[in-house]
What does this fold into?
Amino acid sequence: MQTHHLKRRQFINRLLFVLVCFFAALTSVPLLAILGEVLFRGYSQFSWDFITESTPTAFKAMQAIAAGETIPGGIANGIVGTLLMLAMATVVAVPVGVLCGVYLAENRKSKFANFVSYLTDLLQGTPSVIIGIITYIWVVVPMKTYSAIAGSVALFIMMLPLIIRSTEETVKILPASLKEAGLALGGTYSKVVLKIQLPTAFGGIFTGILLAVSRVIGETAPLMFTALGCSMLRWDVDKPIAAVPLLIWEFFNDPNLQQLIWGASLFLLIFVLMLNITAKKIAKKWKS
Amino acid sequence: MNDKIFKIVLFTAALVIPFICGGIIYSLTIDASDAISHFGFFEFLSSSEWDYTPGKEQYGALPFITGTLLTTLLALLFCIPFSLPVSLFVGEYFKGTRMAEILSTVTDLLAGIPSIIYGLWGFYMLRPIIMALNISPQGSGILTAALVLAIMIVPYAASLSAEFIKMVPSDLKEGAYSLGATRAEVIRHIVFPVAGSGVFSSYILAIGRALGETMTVTMLIGNTNQMPDSLTATGNTMASIIANQFGEADGLKLSALIAIGLLLFCITAIINMIGKVLIKRARIV
It folds into this structure.
C-alpha cells in the first residue's frame, strides 16, 4: 500500500515534468513556423530590384501576371518612408524620453513623479489604434492632409514611454556613490547628470532605444490614419508617404499585388529581429 | 549649464507625458460626444445596430464589445496551457540554465514579431487548416483570431510569470523537499501559493495586450458587424472596426468610431491599472 502511494506520487511528479517540457517546447513551434513560412515564401522575391524600386501599379502587376512574369518593382518607397518617419520620431523621442526618464529616476519620492510614472504605464498600454486616432485628430485634421509628419508623431507617442522606462530603470540602478563622488568634486548637478550618469547608463539607454525602434517599426494601425501610404518614392514630409508595414497591408488587400507580400514581410522581419538581437547583445555586454 | 535651468528642462520633459495623456482623453471625449449625445450613452453601449444608410444612421457598440470580450477571453484560455509551462520551465525546472535562456530568447523573439506578420501567417497558414478541419466554412472568425492572439500574448504572460516564480524563496522549497515532497508537490503547495498573485497579475497585463491588438484581429476575424452567434462566427472587435472603417468615415460615423476608441482606451487603462496594482502588491509579499 505504502509503495503504491509513493509510486503514484513519483508518477505525477514525472508526468508534470514531461508535460511542462513538452508544452514549453511546443511554444517554439509558432516561431519556427512563422520564420519558416516568411523565409520560404519571401526569399524567392528578394532581389536588388526589390529594395531599390517602387511599388508597381495594380495594372502593371496584372500585365506581368498575365504574361507569366514576376511582378516588377519592389518596396523602396516603403523603406524610405519607414526610415524617414522613424528618424524624425527618434530625433524628438530620444531627448524628451531620456530627460523625462532621468527626472523620474531622480525624483522617486515626489508625488508628481509617481503620477507621471503611472501615466507612462498608461500610455505604454494604450492600443496602437488609439494612437492612430489621436494623431489623426491632432495632426491630420489641422493639416488637412495625411503626411509623413503625422506618421512620425504617432511613432513618437509610441516610442516615448518605452524610452522613458528604460532610461528610468537604468539610471535608478546606478550606484549612488557615483553621483556623490561627482558632487563632492564640485560638479554641478547638470554636469553630474550629463557627464557622469548618462554616459555610465549609455548601454542601458541605447538598448532601450533600439528596442523602442524595433517595437514601432512594424506598427501598421497607427500609420493607416496618419501616413496613409503612397506608391511613389518621396521625401516630402508634408505629403502622404508609404511605410513597409503599410505596403504589406496594401498587398494583402490587393489580389494583383499578393506576390509581393512575403518579400516585404521578410524584409520587415529581418529588420525587427536584427534590432532585437543587437539590443539583447548590447544589454548583456553592458551588464557584465 | 545653470542648475536651475537644467532642473526646469527636466521638469518640462516630464510634463510631456501628462500633456499627451490628458490630451488623448480630452480629444477623444470631445470628438466622441457627438455620437454619445446623439444616441445616448447606454443606448450606444447596448445597441447592436451598425447601419450607415444616410438618413437612418444607427451606431451601437455592443457587437464589437462582445467581439473584443470573446476574442480576448478565448485567447487567454488558449494561452495558459503554453505560457504556464514556459514560466515553470524558465522559473523553476531549468532556472538559470542554458535551456531556460534559449526558451526565453524564443519567447522574446515571438514578442518582437510585428502583428501584421502574425496576421499574414494566420491568414495563409492557420485559416486553411481551420477550413480543412471543417470548424468553420470561411476559416476566419473569432476562433481563428483568438488562436493567433493567444500565441501573441504567450511571451507577455510567460516572461512576467517566470520572474515571480523565480522569486519564490528557496528555503521554503527546501523545507518542503526535506519533508519528502516531490517537485510536483512543491510546485503545487509552495510555488503557486507564493507566486500566485504575481502570476495572476501577469495574466491581467496579457489581457490588456490582447484587448487592443488590431492588425492581426482585423485580418482574421472576418469583419462583419452583426452580433457573433457562436465562437466560430465572424465578427469585429473594437480595435478592428476602427481599423476597418476609420479611413473613410466622417460625420456621425467618425464620432461613433472615436467613441468606440474612447471606450477601448478606458477599458485597457482600467485593466492595466488593476494589473499594475496587483503586481506592486505581489512584490511586497
Notes: Chain A touches chain B through 84 residues (CB under 8 Å). The CA atoms of residues 48 and 226 of chain A lie 29 Å apart. Chain A has a mean pLDDT of 92.
